[in-house]
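Checked the freezer inventory, then went back to the computational side. Two predictions to log before the end of the day. The first one is the construct we discussed on Monday; recording sequence and tokens without edits.
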Amino acid sequence: MSYRIRLDQKDGTPGEAQLLSGMDRFLVTVQENRAKVLAGLVALLVVLAVIGGAVWYGQRQADEAFELSRQAMVLSLDRPADKPAVADENLKKAISLYRQVIEQHPRSPAAPMALYNLGNALVQANDFPGAVEAYKRYIAAYGSNKVMLGLVYQRLAFVHLLNGDREQAVKAFSAIMEVPGALNKDQAIFELGKLEESQSRPEGALARYQDLTKNYPNSPFASEAAVRIKALEVKKAPDAGATGNVPLPVPPQAGPPAK
């Protein structure tokens, strides 16, 4: 019995798909899905337009906020001493411009400094409650800026002192010591020492001044703290007369014998 070997012959002619290059296949796909591709391109253009518009609007708002802040700064500095009415009017305008920045552009880069300067301007206007509110708003909204945070606490403490509230001033100065990276901790310690002295607590004042001279020897407040330490130590010592430290009077020497 004979067997016939059957060989499968493959068609050697390449198909249409094999003749197309990658780019050709892409173009064919695009052509077949033209409606979907166009819709995608339109959507992409819309998204880009929205992003571009938002960026443009944000930059415009930032520029406007900086311009308002600049005008306010110029007015707050332009306060002639010989023209008190002009000085007061310029300060009022500066306060109004700072408020405009804060209310209309709260997310602009100029807003934090505008809020800080608003507090300073309100202090100059003797509006201490308003200044306290401004500084507290800064602490709540922009407390992540540790360097500025220490300065704001210091300003807040001084406003409390001007308002006669020593307890709140102590809290504000003490808060500076808890701020990492604050550059005014030495001054805060010095001011706390002065407050201790003003309340007739020499032991507390002495401890503050000693802390300052030990941990911040290069501080500009260290030399005055050293002077105050000596003065407090002298006051702390018992009366010299009670300890016998005062030299006794020397009796007069007898004169030459009479002739």
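The second is the one RB wanted added to the comparison set:
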Amino acid sequence: MKLVCFTLGADDTLRPGALLGSGDLILDFAASAADVPRSRSMLDWCDLAGRSLPAAKALAARVSGDAALRAGLERAGAIVKRSAAKLLAPIPRPGKVICIGLNYRDHAKESGMAIPSRPLVFSKFSSCVVGPGATVVRPIGCTQLDYEAELGFVVGRRATRVKAADAMEHVLGYVNINDVSARDFQFADGQWQRGKSSDTFCPMGEYIATTDEIADPHQLRIRLRLNGQTMQDSNTEQLIFGIPQLIEALTEFVTLEPGDVVATGTPFGVGFARKPPVYVQPGDVMEVEIDGLGVLRNPVADALS
């Protein structure tokens, strides 16, 4: 299932849904005709043990094999055209956005850094999450804006002190993330929060592919294009710490909850490590593409002074 969050027309109500078929249609779980139990928040839609998500998954499975049901839901307005909707980040406000630094062998090498012995953990403020098509804003004073294509995974089950062998039971699915970074802020501050968490610095989407959609998250091609030119082109097989190892390490000290998002790191090819460096400019367009997760496209503009 490909889970999305969207709005319709002038109504700004957040609506959970799933892309159908080739992605031209959305099954609207919030529609009364869908008859899916409501959740208190978008985070609850990520709970594998909750009432809403299992019912939504069952409905999506029935729709794919029942033409009459699909036609009825279309007539009732529970299936809408994607062109009529505005896709947002599939989790517009995650509980936590946890990031992993230096987690690709090729990126550690280009950065001149030693391979870490345990995951290097930092965070982004959840308020910097934006969706597909949203404008990434270069903040005032920043001249070294950088891109980072990343595979994100979404937590689907509460996890505390989980061993790697059991970790994948706690994963809902996977999503494209662009860990946008203000390198001048990051390196000047001596810590990364401002450089990583400025408004709009966490584009995410277009959808969450649930785990049944992705055979092996550690065998996915990952790319970033800047104005159509490929800048990063690697594979998640380059990850130093895979998803099970990350979950074990993280849950030693923090409880992961449904709707938390973990960005697993970026591969070789970031802008600051190039010679000469390549920084993102207003008017540029960034695209993250990971096998099975579609394309996350975001234009860039300067902040209004």
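For RB: The CA atoms of residues 213 and 230 lie 26 Å apart. Helices lie at 52-65, 67-75, 105-110, 183-189, 193-197, 243-250. Let me know if you want it refolded.
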